[in-house]
Amino acid sequence: MPQIIAFYLPQYYPFKENDEWWGKGFTEWTNVGKAKPLFKGHDQPRVPADLGYYDLRLPIVREEQAEMAREAGITAFCYWHYWFGNGKRLLADVFYEVLETGKPDFPFCLGWANHSWYAKTWDKDAKQKDVLLMEQTYPGIEDEKMHFNFLLKAFHDKRYLKIDGKPFLYIFDADSIPTEYIQHLREWTKEAGFNGLYLIANISITDDKQKYLKKGFDAVTYKRILYYNALSSGNTTNGFIRKLAYLYGTVKGFFMGRPGLVVDYRKHYHNFITDEEYEECVIPEIIPGWDHSPRSKDKAIIYINNTPEAFYKHCKQALDSVREKQNKIILLKSWNEWGEGNYMEPDIKYGKGFIHSLHRALAES
Q1: For the whole prediction, is pTM greater than 0.70?
Q2: Distance (Å, rounded) from C-alpha 282 to C-alpha 197?
């Protein structure tokens, strides 16, 4: 059976740093709730249905999420994990409770979001540059060991997802992580009694995947939610075509009275799955939608017409790409990224439509 691993954002509760940076009580719902439509027919704001504007500190919410994930046919949640170096973590409370309480009784793994946090300045004419809020660092072997000891506790949990006896670990920024860091994680995981570590690199379509396989990763997944992917082709690395696609989108948007990076999901979802996704070392992603405008307004990439039926067809294509593979892994981006219009959870427009679409595609496959 295919294994569907859904990225899970643990951002829906207030914490000290967000209060300091954005104001008391800020969560992801703040941006979601104040979003405005930018053109006629733009589906904003997105309003959650069954779970409402939830607080992830409540165990009952996490239990209901797990039940919905089971209904969809999702194998595991991949919790975003933030380790900035020297033991500094953010958004740690939710996963800590999941690990300590044993609930929900639903499989999981970790995705290390190893990138710095910035307060983005989306206005290109603004004098103020992006402001660094929290820097990602790699201080050395002592920090690596401290980080591994945290990971090891999670790896030993019976719910932790293993591939051929290897704990699954996703790395967001595969370029910045030092090669020796990867070597140490692999070595220490084996010494702890596992078959090894199953490491996934998140890479650009312009990257050579062999570079990351040689660095120590077992597989890669491509970032395909980009304007030039959608407006030209899913695997183009040609710089001229990318610039032409951007220019085309900008001009078209001007005449249509909307932002330039608006893409029709129904016409372009096939670009998310290319011939490379059929290779054993490439893990495909399924994407229910994308609309970054709650965060970045008219500078956003916005997918329109991302209906449950179109998502179902996208899932079928992705499932076909893993049919002959030894490890039939598909990443689902994402379970609950509401600020990016990238979620499976029910909203007031489609209800459980995307959950039912994935379930249907899996059942037919």
Answers
A1: yes
A2: 17
